Amino acid sequence: MSSSSQTMPASSPGVGERLREARMETGLTIADVATRLRMQLRVVEALEAEDWARLGAPVFIRGQLRSYLRLLKLPESLADGVSDASVRPPELTPRTYTPPMQRMLDKAMGRAVYVVITALIAVPVWVATRSHVDNSRPVETASLGLDGSQSPVDTRPARPTPVTASLGALPKRAPAAAPAGDLETQASADLVMRFSGDSWIEVIGPDGVAVEQALVQAGQERRFEAGTVARVKLGNANAVEVSRDGDVQDLSRFQRANVARFTVSSDGALAPAAE
């Protein structure tokens, strides 16, 4: 059979029906299964309907299937029939990432340009106004009661030396460097994920918009800046190492059926995510 014809799992055409029949024989409802496995109702329904497109990556589907098969005491090998060709992850548009230092430099350069433009406009205007005021002062003479043989003393105030304004480029102000402590704190607050095996990830930002949702290959790394992540879901969580402030986090308290779900607070602290 050619690879183009693999649109459904190759060796598990009846796995959904077997799950449904086994569940009904044990007297369990879909809600009971969802409660025991800590899954959403739509996930259980999709597994029984073999609607793999609703569940994401194959590694995520296999993990959910094994948990369901284990609950009903069915062979877990049925989950291995899910083909990678049967599930097509959604195409995501990568976001442009700007390093924190680059953003700080851009802000500093913008302020420097504003100062230079203001100086180029204000300095010539001030010089021209000052010269006009000095030239408009009346000339006053004072008599000291001396005879005509003596020259009168010039009591006029000395005029200031004319100043010529130059419109040449002023020296650029160097951008202010950020304190070293702030940069270290910002770098240490990043959330880093390292993958030793294929894993399906879903990262949601504070605004509820998906930051990343994709199948990550083994050996890759993801780094998220502090404050840009609110919720995280990891498939095949045993193959993912999550670190914060350089410390590796224990995912077992967030993990169910090899799927980890947790939230990230504004200060980077991890907590279990509500179902």
TrEMBL record:
Residues 192-263 form the Cytoskeleton protein RodZ-like C-terminal domain. Keywords: Membrane, Transmembrane, Transmembrane helix. Signal peptide: none annotated. InterPro entries: Bact_Cytoskel_RodZ, Cro/C1-type_HTH, Lambda_DNA-bd_dom_sf, RodZ-like_C. Gene3D superfamilies: lambda repressor-like DNA-binding domains. Residues 139-180 are annotated as: Disordered. Coiled coil: none annotated. It comes from the Bacteria. The chain crosses the membrane at residues 112-129. PANTHER family: CYTOSKELETON PROTEIN RODZ, PTHR34475. This is Cytoskeleton protein RodZ. It comes from Luteimonas terrae.
